Amino acid sequence: MSVMAALELKRSVRVVLSRKQMFTFGHRPPTLQTMRFGADASGRLTALGHAALGETSQFEDYIENVVNWGGMLYPAENTKLEYQIIPMDVFSPLDMRAPGGSTGMHAIESTLDELAYALHMDPVQLRLANYTTTDPSKKKPYTSKELKACYEQGAERFGWYNRNPEPRSMRRGSKLVGYGMATGIWEANQLVARVAATVRSDGKLHISSAVTDIGTGTKTVMAQIAADELGLPIENVIVGYGDSDMPFAPIQGGSFTLATLGSAIQASCMALRKKLLKIAAKAPDSPFSGLKTDDVVFRDGMFFLKDNPAQIMSLQTVIELNKGKEVRTVNTGLPRVFKTKNYARAAHSAAFVEVEVDEELGIIQVKRALTTVAAGRIINPKTARSQILGGMVWGISKALMEETSQDHRLGKYMNPNLAEYHIPVHADVHDLDVVFVEEKDELINGLGIKGVGEIGLVAMVPAITNAIFHATGKRIHKLPVRLDALL
């Protein structure tokens, strides 16, 4: 809307919506899902059926991946996936917090939990019994997969095996206590982006891209990657972003931003190193003449010969050799299409949750939760942890609170405000923990990263509903889980 107005008016435009107006377009599409799982006595899945009915508007199609996730995780000889979209008199749905993945994984992991109880088998052990390092739906190996370590490290840290597996068997005072767990998966994608890298006369590195930062810490990791690639202190890296005049970058979303942008930064810095080395080689009696970048170490603003560290030249000297002119390059980061075409790519997680349920009032509280994540190389554990924590809070929100009520006669939302559309507040968020499992991936991209974001959410909702079953003995599929369903 703002872009169209800006193009027409030839000036910057800001669009401001009231809270009520924001409820008039875009929503997570409701779905009706039917699950059929079969297994032998050992827990090995023999059948996996997932059918979903979703909605779109009358004037355009909106389709998200809902039924495909189970086939990516669990091998079953007999697998049937069905998905039908129905046009309805609503505005078009939009991507909302792990689109499709959060919806589908809730049904899949809840059904698997139900199967575990039917088999009298531990839910973690059932998942381990069906563990595979390949994507069964594509019959391709994953570039890397450390989901087993997520299960093992998560169960140990959470104290999973200390629980009594019998439903309604654990109490804390007058409250029922339940443990639940679930698996998470999210595709590790990469798009195309361009980055400009420039060493200016002051010896500082300026990198820029049109990418936005929606609060995930993109600017910070841009600086980190560039600093590592050129061997500079991070304070000597200046980051520019969020301007369409800068080199192209896609939207921020889908957990692909860091893989996309990081690869472009790496490509630009590698090209910049070649240019700088070429200038350094022109100095009289230069020890860098005829060398390749692999022969040189870039560290602390200096160039070193790998085989003779005593041979050294500063970045400032290279700038002086270039007569004080800046050295600039603009390069594109591309997905490794040929290297990864025979592989599947995904990040994985496991969520463990403890809930308390007030038996008289039906009030549910998530008292503690742990998410273990395998997402390749984690560039900044602090900002990555914050993203996972945010996803976990969203999971609590989706499982227990967020719901719109519509007047079907008038087509209006009846709770278009934050007084009646409930989201978690501090009192709803208790002990949350995140563990990043070490995962080395040399195939997926040059940095070995998969991205985080959605992977912090997709396992939380089924882990919560599974914990509610363990606490109460009631299996509730409709979200959000409201207290009247428990009374």
How would you describe this protein?
- This protein is of the alpha+beta class.
- It contains twelve helices and 19 strands.
- It has helices spanning 2-9, 19-22, 69-73, 101-118, 123-129, 147-158, 218-230, 257-280, 315-321, 337-340, 381-400, 460-472; strands at 32-39, 45-56, 78-87, 134-135, 140-141, 171-172, 175-187, 193-199, 205-209, 237-241, 296-299, 302-305, 308-314, 327-333, 346-358, 364-374, 406-407, 412-413, 431-436.
- The strands form six sheets. The chain has a five-stranded mixed beta sheet, with helices on both faces.
- β8 (193-199) and β9 (205-209) form a beta hairpin.
Query: Would you count the extended β strands for me?
Result: 19
Largest sheet: 5 strands, mixed
Tally of DSSP helical segments = 12
Low-confidence stretches: none
Strand order of the largest sheet: 6-7-15-16-19
Beta-strand portion reads 25-35%
**Classification by helices and strands:** alpha+beta
Radius of gyration, in angstroms, nearest whole number: 26 Å
Helix content: 25-40%
Mean pLDDT: 94
Query: How far is it from the N-terminal to the C-terminal residue, by CA?
Result: 46 Å
Please state the overall shape, judged from the principal axes of the Cα atoms: globular
